[in-house]
Automatic annotation (TrEMBL):
Biased composition (Low complexity): 59-75
Protein name: FMN-binding protein
Region (Disordered): 1-24, 50-110
Recorded GO MF terms: FMN binding
Domain called FMN-binding: residue spans: 108-186
Pfam families associated with the record: FMN_bind
Entry-linked InterPro entries: FMN-bd (IPR007329)
């Protein structure tokens, strides 16, 4: 499997070591290098397919697309697993109330339900209900839930992304994902 170039490198390494222990360790190192090179040869292929997981990176899109569009009353609901390939964020939003239920945080253990009220492209109200797995998460979510209206109410929905609120980084990320989902729901297609 080794090319002539690899064989020459192995010979050079062997000649530089003295004794059988040096030859063995140099040979093992050379074989390891050849094996690693062979295994890595397929990495980075142009045909590689990215992972399909909920936390594969932040592409700026929500992890869950809405499962239904807004009704005539302007209210829509989407669970964490909905998927509508046609809907996308257009930057123009219908007035209404948009629900995103069971939005997971990055721990994968806790979720939040978010209701966003939109009028003339601005957030006029927000409600967050937390679902936690332990007391520490409950404390962080409670602090987030108390602080978030003061951070987002009165702000434009378009492009809104909040930084860590009340020390709750995982809940903040879940909230940002829920906002992206709400933007998709509210978008005029």
């Amino acid at each position: 499997m080794a090319s002539n170039k690899d064989s020459k490198q192995v010979s050079t390494i062997k000649a530089g070591k003295s004794g059988s222990a040096g030859v063995k360790s140099a040979t093992v190192a050379a074989v390891g290098l050849i094996a690693a090179t062979t295994l890595l040869a397929g990495c980075g292929s142009k045909d590689a397919i990215p992972a399909d997981g909920a936390y594969q990176g932040n592409s700026g899109e929500s992890m869950a697309a809405p499962s239904s569009s807004a009704s005539a009353g302007g209210t829509s609901s989407a669970g964490g697993a909905g998927n509508d390939a046609k809907a996308h964020d257009t930057g123009k939003y219908r007035d209404g109330t948009y629900n995103v239920d069971n939005q997971p945080d990055s721990s994968g253990k806790d979720t939040i339900d978010v209701t966003v009220k939109v009028a003339q492209g601005d957030i006029t109200g927000v409600t967050v209900v937390g679902h936690t797995s332990n007391d520490i998460s409950k404390k962080h979510q409670a602090a987030f839930i108390e602080a978030i209206p003061g951070v987002v109410v009165g702000k434009p929905l378009k492009g809104l992304k909040v930084d860590k609120v009340a020390g709750a980084s995982w809940t903040t990320q879940a909230f940002n994902d829920a906002l992206a989902n709400a933007r998709t729901q509210a978008s005029v297609q």
